[in-house]
Amino acid sequence: MKHHRLRVNMIECEAHGVCAELFPERVRLDEWGYPIIDDEPIPASLMRHARRAVQNCPKLALIIADE
Questions:
Q1: Where are the alpha helices (DSSP H) in the chain?
Q2: Which of 10, 24, 1, 25 is nearest to 62 (CA)?
Q3: 20: closest CA among 45, 43, 44, 61?
Q4: What are the residue ranges in the chain where pLDDT is below 50?
Q5: How many Å apart are CA 51 and CA 30, to the nearest integer?
Q6: pTM value?
Q7: Are 56 and 20 spatial neighbours (Cβ–Cβ below 8 Å)?
Q8: Helix (H) or strand (E) holding 36
Q9: What integer pLDDT is reported at residue 9 of this predicted model?
């Protein structure tokens, strides 16, 4: 069974915080505003929220990885 997990490219990320605003179920921000991603697989019930966060990342640093 394939699992989907949220990943962030920290080199591209500029700490805008949009991901945490749009997907607080799996993303929180560190003291500098960079995302800390929950490593648990994304359940189907949250995939819509995850996709919205990925699509709205200003630097396209957020992805959904198939594992």
A1: 18-22, 47-56
A2: 10
A3: 61
A4: none
A5: 22
A6: 0.92
A7: no
A8: strand 35-37
A9: 98
